[in-house]
């Protein structure tokens, strides 16, 4: 009978922060940043380590595709593969290693859509696991921090809060997976240190409520984005939709979500201060009954002399109160409104500045892609910025195509640009196209690598000569 070593026999489980449900069209976190404990083991998952995972992946380690399976079953067959990774400091779920692009088979899509496999789990070889290292089959070198697989996992017993780390059947591979039992976090004890089933039930309810609030907050932010980026609405219509959404959000979070409600209140106040809040309710008007005749109004009795005098006195009191209202209070309200509008204008200016910077970076990449045209980068950026703002898109596309054709002809004729210019001369067509695609992802899709296909389509349409040359070469 074969015996197991302690490392093989023990399951090393830790709890990670909240993981949301998998959306294969968006980047999702695979491994978080931080220090984690289980028994005597301490795992320092640093940025440098996760960036090395990305570097190894992009460098061809492992040499085969990083396959996706179900439940880490070694004989279950693949249901997809990981196509790209990135370390994101400001990722949607906080800092960590993110999968930015995957490809699922029909079986994988069915597991995700129909069978509830909406969680993710990494399989990795690293020295944090008793010094284990991956051996490069081409060179024989031992390499640390290599992602070798990923699994889709079903929803665990209490939602997506618990994510464990335990040893695989292969002791060199550690597997990040969701476990509904036997976990420990920073010596807090099992199930939050519960000592009875009543305490366990209370802890479980608290976990579920935390999950509900966070999920509601994420959905709220996504819905706000849907409103904000919908160009079919003008500013006033967007504000009205946002105000309605804020009310729905506040009703959903209720008790326990005071901080989230406070953030929504601030947004509501900003919209109101800049004049985009809800319109005041109009006074009720007399309705007309179904018979078409005006509704009979109660007969008004004439006021007595005493009532008339009381009414006049009340009006005088209201006028006096209005006249004596502290000017400082009125001035403060005006200053608050002006400050809120200034902040809104500043935020809009910052967004415009950021977009201008992204356009500048993209145009620099375009200029750098020319092999022979003596095109100074700064001049290209300056002139093409004006061209893109003033000319129709089809004319801009035509002009780019002409420049690329001239550049290609000059290269074919041996008329390379002078050595020492600020443009690169050793880029291949593939390098040039990839640089342009990366710039397009950054400018148009906020760095979302899951939009790679859309970015490639846009770049190919804008640079047809380059795309044709690449296809011909391939």
Give an overview in words.
With 474 residues, the protein is of the alpha+beta class. The protein folds into three domains: 9-193, no CATH class; 197-273, no CATH class; 358-473, no CATH class. Helix content is 47%, strand content 14%. The protein contains 13 helices and twelve strands. The strands form three sheets. It has an eight-stranded mixed β-sheet with strand order 1-6-5-4-10-7-12-11. Strands 2-3 form a two-stranded antiparallel ribbon. It is flat. Residues 290-319 have a biased composition (Basic and acidic residues). Residues 278-328 are annotated as: Disordered.
Please give the structural blueprint.
Blueprint: H1 6-9, E1 28-32, E2 34-38, E3 41-45, H2 47-58, E4 66-70, E5 80-88, E6 96-104, H3 106-113, E7 119-125, E8 134-135, E9 142-143, E10 146-153, E11 164-167, E12 174-177, H4 197-228, H5 235-253, H6 258-273, H7 305-323, H8 327-369, H9 377-390, H10 393-412, H11 429-444, H12 452-462, H13 464-473
- How many domains is the backbone divided into? 3
Q: Give the helix level as a range of percent.
A: 40-55%
Radius of gyration: 31 Å
Give the overall silhouette: flat
Biased composition (Basic and acidic residues): 290-319
Region (Disordered): 278-328
Short description:
This protein is an alpha+beta fold and 474 residues long. 47% of the residues lie in helices and 14% in strands.
């Amino acid at each position: 009978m074969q015996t197991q070593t302690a490392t093989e026999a023990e399951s090393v489980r830790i709890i990670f922060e909240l993981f949301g449900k998998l959306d294969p069209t968006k980047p999702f976190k695979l491994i978080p940043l931080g220090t984690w404990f289980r028994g005597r083991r301490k795992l320092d998952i640093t940025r440098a380590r996760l960036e090395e995972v990305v570097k190894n992946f992009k460098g061809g380690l492992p040499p085969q595709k990083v396959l996706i399976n179900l439940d880490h079953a070694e004989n279950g067959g693949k249901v997809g593969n990981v196509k790209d990774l990135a370390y994101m400091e400001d990722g949607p779920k906080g800092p960590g290693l993110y999968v930015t692009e995957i490809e699922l088979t029909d079986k994988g899509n069915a597991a995700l859509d129909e069978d509830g496999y909406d969680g993710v789990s990494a399989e990795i070889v690293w020295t944090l696991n008793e010094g284990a290292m991956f051996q490069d089959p081409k060179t024989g070198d031992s390499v640390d921090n290599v992602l070798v697989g990923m699994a889709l996992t079903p929803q665990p017993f209490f939602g997506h809060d618990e994510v464990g780390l335990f040893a695989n059947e292969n002791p060199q591979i550690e597997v990040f997976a969701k476990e509904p039992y036997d976990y420990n976090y920073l010596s807090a004890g099992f199930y939050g240190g519960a000592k009875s089933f009543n305490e366990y039930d209370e802890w479980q309810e608290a976990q579920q409520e935390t999950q509900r609030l966070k999920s509601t907050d994420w959905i709220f932010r996504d819905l706000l984005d849907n409103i904000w980026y919908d160009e079919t609405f003008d500013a006033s219509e967007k504000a009205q939709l946002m105000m309605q959404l804020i009310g729905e959000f506040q009703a959903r979070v209720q008790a326990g979500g005071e901080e989230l409600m406070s953030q929504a209140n601030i947004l509501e106040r900003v919209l109101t201060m800049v004049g985009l809040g809800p319109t005041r309710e109009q006074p009720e008007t007399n309705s007309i009954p179904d018979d078409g005749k005006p509704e009979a109004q109660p007969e008004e009795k004439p006021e007595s002399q005493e009532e008339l005098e009381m009414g006049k006195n009340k009006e005088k009191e209201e006028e006096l109160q209005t006249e004596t209202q502290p000017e400082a209070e009125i001035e403060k309200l005006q200053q608050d409104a002006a400050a809120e509008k200034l902040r809104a204008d500043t935020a809009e200016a910052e967004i415009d500045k950021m977009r201008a910077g992204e356009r500048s970076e993209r145009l620099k990449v375009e200029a750098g892609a020319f092999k022979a045209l003596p095109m100074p980068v700064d001049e290209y950026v300056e002139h093409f910025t004006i061209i893109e703002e003033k000319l129709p898109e089809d004319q801009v596309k035509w002009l780019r195509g002409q420049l690329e054709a001239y550049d290609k002809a000059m290269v074919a004729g041996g008329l390379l640009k002078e050595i020492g210019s600020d443009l690169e001369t050793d880029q291949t067509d593939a390098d040039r196209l990839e640089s342009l695609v990366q710039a397009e992802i950054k400018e148009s899709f906020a760095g979302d690598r899951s939009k790679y296909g859309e970015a490639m389509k846009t770049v190919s349409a804008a640079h047809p000569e380059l795309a044709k040359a690449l296809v011909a070469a391939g």
